[in-house]
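Fig. S4 source data, part A: sequence.
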Amino acid sequence: MPSNVMTHRALESAEITAVGIDVGGEQKGFHAVALIGGKYACRLATKDVPELSRWCRKTIRPLVIAIDAPCRWSDDGRARPAERALMKQGISCFSTPTRSQALEHPTNYFGWMLQGAKLFHAIEEEFPLCRIVSAANRKCCFETFPHAITWYLRGGNANASHKKTQRRALLKQAGIDITELTTIDLVDAALCALAASFAAAGKECVGFGEQKTGLIIVPNQRKADPGILP
């Protein structure tokens, strides 16, 4: 695996290792995909936060990690600014509660967000949370969202009911081998890794939200490509 030693020159895409992580509840667990130079490298499925953290820090050693889970809690019990901004674009998403609301929910509806919070806590010492849109040439992690990634990479044409087809097509167009991506969780993890690769390479991204309650960062490629539209 590459050492990810930082230099003063811009990193070339071929040198970048990026990880994307799809977050589930305690029973479903985490699904992670690593890309090296924009190509599929390996995957991991685990229910254990320390195992996933070690895999990232010791085995894969990526430059950037992108995670499909809230990086911070709401501070008022309403949707965070990032989520409200996505909704204004017509991109539907979950509203993040306060931590106490998540802990007190009678059916553990927000259990996957609690798992995501544990993951961010585990990796942020080595991969600080990105507080600006640019992640080029620096080790960090950030929150992303597969539906928003799809929406932006398809020029605003994303349909959640066709997510399996649309998201796999995006990965294939990006040159990513999807053979090992046998579930939608792994597909979403790969999309997150693609977003991490974009950000790490200094390609244009867009951020929603603010620093206190967290940014959601996605690749910014709004121009529709006829090759990926139905």
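Fig. S4 source data, part B ends here. The longest strand covers residues 39-46.
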